[in-house]
Here is the input.
Amino acid sequence: IRFVYGEIGDLAVTILSERDEVETEADFFLISGAAPYQLRQSGCYEISGLSDDKILEILNSKSPVYRYRNSTIFDPAICQYHGRRNDLCAKCVEVCPTVAILKNDEKRELVFSHIDCIGCGACVSVCPSGALKFARLPQSVFCEIAKLYRGKIPLLIAEGEISPALNVPLPCGVLPLGFFGTKQIDEVNLLSLMQESGSSVILCGADVGEGTREAAELVNEISRAIYGRQAVFLAQNLSELSEALKLAQSSQPWEFSLNEFNLSKKEIFSKRVSAMVGEDGFGTVKSGERLKFGEVAINESSCTLCLSCVGACNTGALYADRSDNSIKLNASLCTMCNYCVLSCAEKDTMALNFSGLKLQPEFFSYRTLAKDELFRCIECGKEFATAKAVMKIADMMSAHFADDVEKMKTLFCCGDCKAKIMI
Here is the structure.
């Protein structure tokens, strides 16, 4: 077998023989000794060691009708890959165990195949901006459920892990909360649940995924720095679950309720951690492999406030404040994707500093990075551009217009007056 592609019910298999290469179509692809890439495709099944009756059972359960769910919701407006000039993210593609998410580098688009999705939620947990949501349990619903756990110790447990966990007696005050995707839980889920409940959170699952594990580590680093205690307990087996049940406590100092309506993933994270930090400083939490934090720096002397960086930022971290003609940054909303730096029109003007998550009040509010005055047209007095932008163009063109007073004058005029002078 050279290659297999498509989806269940519409597979194409390329078969190599000694003399020829043949492509055939099939509803199912049954193979002994399958390569890992082949089993990522829906409709492909490893049959080595299976009896004929078992194989027939598999086929009959998926034919003539194959049922599947749309497990993810995608928002391209805040995706760090979709429609961008540079390949900056696509973490979801990297962690997908099937071919449910692929990327088209030519068009810079993510391609979704819901029929291939197994609903594990790994893509949701690693998405830095929240462009991917778990359809069966989006954050808006998760937060409302979390509010019902106030005063209780939440036991987060994947749907498939519930039966084995029944063998462990639960202490009074521990309340299970089932979720669908074994790898869907992210840092915002954990923060919402621990703050709304006011308790430690136990996450039980044999395969929680890289994104969920890193999210738990981040939340614990934050809680240790601020409160000196662990907030999230991971339990991958019954022994670890029993131990976690002994350590988890209710009535914790991080209790806080937030109305998350219409807030993005980054905004929820920012507001929840800001509430924990308050007005004090608690040092810095290092960035992880996937969850990166830091700050954007701008060389104010060379910045012309063209706002290319603001237009490139789709998480709201960079903001153009018209009231004082400035560019402001809320570092807690930044995903450190580097697109603002790549979009900057001026050389060596912007840079990223991967300094980590600073547990200080100013990290969670907007501060000024660059500022300029507006230039008034020398003819009509109308403000039309920043002073630095006008002077930069004037410096570039003055040598060409040195012998023409009228042309030289147009360099300092608005568009309307410039046209009048040129005519």
Residues 86 and 342 are 8 Å apart (CA to CA). The first strand starts at residue 3 and ends at 7. The chain is about 30% helix and 20% strand. Residues 210-227 form the longest helix (18 residues).
